């Protein structure tokens, strides 16, 4: 597939020993690269499959377009799909990194949305090869990677988290001045999109719609939708959906439904996931909430909302 193809590519069979996806959707992929110096793919692993940004774990010398680039855990590497490069070992270290790839259409939209390059650029690329990674960003990408690698995370949450990391990396890579504030008409369109997204998510909060699916329903791009929704609601799409699910769960629990039944009915993948989100949001477990409700119903007279403690 070429650089302009929307779909993210699978790891080739020849590279599976050193290259592994821990998550892959139509929009983003998250993976690991662990290659010892003696491996045949160490010096030349072929062109980059997809637009991606990587966080090195070890120092390595990268040869790109005739230039030598030294990378280490204090920087992120930025690669365009189809780009060729080579490696040289430093002190016998293996080449180790975690990477985040994005579909070509998403990458181009991110460049345009953040005004990193001209929207008319024929062959969009990251404007620089590496960016300095501040401790807060490094920690954030580690938290995202660990959650994904552990098998946790709603696909919508993973996609939003990766696009948020992409926005941070592009902000650090910016080589042109920020774009002026949006016009009133454009701002109004953004508010309408945010409202339509709220309605779309609320109408199907128990469903597991992905970011790509939501964007298609709303006639938007995934990257633009993420940024506009957070700008106008202060939440990610995933967090908004979780809050809707938890509020719906309260009503079902009050009606006496079983906790596990409620968890699956409102869209949670497991009892444990539901319990963890419920406790983090409301400060108690679903079972405790149900138990307190039974105690209240068992009293001759319910508590008065106007009573003093």
Please summarize what this structure is:
By secondary structure, the chain is of the alpha+beta class.
Describe the structure.
With 309 residues, this protein is α+β, with helices and mostly antiparallel strands. The chain folds into 3 domains: 13-173, Jelly Rolls; 191-234; 240-298, Arc Repressor Mutant, subunit A. Helices cover 43% and strands 16% of the residues. The strands form 2 sheets. Strands 1-2-8-3-6-9 form a 6-stranded antiparallel sheet. Helix 4 crosses helix 6, helix 4 runs parallel beside helix 7 and helix 8 (259-265) crosses helix 9 (271-282). The model is unreliable at 1-5 and 300-309 (pLDDT under 50).
SSE diagram, text form:
Blueprint: E1 19-24, E2 28-35, E3 51-56, E4 60-64, E5 67-71, E6 75-79, E7 86-89, E8 95-102, H1 104-113, E9 130-132, H2 135-149, H3 155-173, H4 184-203, H5 211-218, H6 222-233, H7 237-254, H8 259-265, H9 271-282, H10 286-298
Antiparallel strand pairs: 1-2, 2-8, 3-6, 3-8, 4-5, 4-7, 6-9
Helix pairs in contact: 2-3, 4-6, 4-7, 8-9
